[in-house]
Amino acid sequence: MSEVRKAAIPVAGMGTRFLPVTKAVPKELLPVGTKPTLQIVIEEAAASGIEEVVLITSPDKQEITNFFRTDTAYDQKLKAAGKEALLDGLSDLLKKVKITTAPQENPKGLGHAILCAKEAVCDEPFIVILPDVLIESRTPCCKQLIDAYKKTGCAVNATEHTPKSQIHLYGIYDIERSENKFHYASAVIEKPSAEEAPSDLSVVGRYLFPAETFKILEETPPGKNNEIQLADAMNTLAKMGKMVAYEYEGRQFDTGDPAGFLQANIFYGYKNHKKEIEQFMEEVINHSQSAV
Ligand code: UTP
């Protein structure tokens, strides 16, 4: 079984849920604290042993490639001011992981975006990370998926139990059989109603695919919104008995949703600035009570 050395991260979407800010700033560079979510997920990849990250980029989002350059006018000014150590965290990350790019000219869906990484990934199993999903866990989530892949030899997707009220928002698995936290899927159903859903196990934005997935994506016709859907390719893998939904250990924040973005900032803000946030929350609660 080949080692998992590469991760593909699609960053070419339009980020419409974050307008107006995404008119000028790519969604993937919006920060939790002072760090872009994209940097946070690349740190997760590096901590999982990934050596190369392929960013699937849009020609309209040059800011993302600039973020990983070390020779911009800003870098030079920072250096001249003797302050380059402020970027040590990012520089150290770039020493651990090689960043390459694969263009997606137009956002034609997640499946299409992943297909754009075919040449860069070559004939190897690879991780896919949705950069707006942050995962807080003891073992990095990508590492958990690599271990699950080594055990099963199947495509693996992180999954979790989902409250009934949120099932209609996610891809949901139909499960053929389960062994502990390994659920062998027979199908993935996009956003079913809670009544129609065959389980409460949802698709979470971390995946590990064998190289043959590119061929499956090439043969996947455009689906919903006339886009090539990753979920459709996962469905094909499930029908072949090669798709495992793995119940990962951890908690996700969907920062692609404005409320989830705020939750992530509150969670990590509290973790890093406990005293200040506790005082502030007291003020917020007092203020909202006196305003009622
Ligand atoms: P999302 O659906 O969350 O991103 O895709 P979006 O389409 O940019 O967001 P909204 O719905 O308009 O607010 C998950 C990831 O896949 C990338 C996005 O950039 C995001 O990081 N993506 C999506 C692509 O790279 N290409 C696509 O065609 C679609």
What does this protein look like?
The chain has 292 residues and is an alpha/beta fold. It has a single domain, classed as Spore Coat Polysaccharide Biosynthesis Protein SpsA, Chain A (Alpha-Beta Complex). It contains eleven helices and 13 strands. The chain has helices at 37-47, 62-67, 73-80, 88-96, 110-115, 118-121, 141-152, 213-218, 230-239, 258-272, 274-291, and strands at residues 6-10, 31-32, 35-36, 52-57, 98-103, 126-129, 133-136, 155-161, 171-179, 182-190, 201-209, 243-247, 251-254. The chain has a nine-stranded mixed sheet with strand order 5-4-1-6-11-8-12-10-9. Strand 9 and strand 10 (182-190) form a beta hairpin. It starts with 5 loop residues before the first strand and ends with a helix. 40% of the residues are buried. The model has no long low-confidence stretch (mean pLDDT 96). The structure holds uridine 5'-triphosphate. Uridine 5'-triphosphate binds next to helix 5.
